[in-house]
Amino acid sequence: MAEMDVALKDALQLDGALAVAIVDWTSGMALGTAGGGFGFDIAVAAAANTEVLRAKYRTLEMLDLGENVEDILVTLESQYHLIRPITAPDGHGLFLYLALHRERANLAMARHRLRLIEQQLEI
């Protein structure tokens, strides 16, 4: 099991990683962050992406799909943003948020690694 700081550092080692956060989606507050800077405020981005995750859960509820969100990908011209809910019992209400530089990132590898980090995370 990886502690929060170790998990954040591990995610930041991905090729093209700009910033990563562990976020409480009930409050929008980032519990831990790594990276960012250069005009990219990870705390602001994490809080704003809380609304993206909430909207998706509301949609699933309205559609009565009985499914869970594995991850959400937002594709920008120069970046990828990944949102991955933490499924561990002690991580309920939290998600991982990862911003990647699009030209340098391997999206499949980032999704795979984020899944492993989420599974090993110890809150």
Primary descriptors:
123 residues, 3 helices, five-stranded antiparallel sheet, Beta-Lactamase, 37% helix, alpha+beta
Low-confidence stretches: none
How many β-strands, per DSSP?
5
In the residues, how many domains can be counted?
1
Strand content: 25-35%
Q: In which order are the strands of the major sheet placed?
A: 2-1-5-4-3
Q: Given this structure, which CATH class is correct? A: Alpha Beta
Spell out the helices and strands N to C.
HEEHEEEH
What's the shape? globular
> Which architecture does the CATH hierarchy give at level 2?
2-Layer Sandwich
Which class best fits the helix and strand makeup? alpha+beta
The largest sheet is: 5 strands, antiparallel
Radius of gyration: 14 Å
- What's the overall average pLDDT, rounded? 92
In DSSP terms (H or I, runs of 4 or more residues), the helix count works out at 3
Annotated CATH homologous superfamily: Dynein light chain 2a, cytoplasmic
Distance between the termini: 9 Å
**What is the helical fraction, as a range of percent?**
25-40%
Outline the structure in words.
The chain has about 120 residues and is α+β, with helices and mostly antiparallel strands. The protein is about 35% helix and about 25% strand. It is built from three helices and five strands; from the N terminus they run αββαβββα. The chain has helices spanning about 5-10, 40-65, 105-120; strands spanning about 15-25, 30-35, 70-75, 80-85, 95-100. A hairpin with a 3-residue loop joins strand 3 (about 70-75) and strand 4. The longest helix is centred in the middle third of the chain and has 22 residues, at about 40-65. The protein starts with a helix and ends with a helix. The mean pLDDT is about 90.
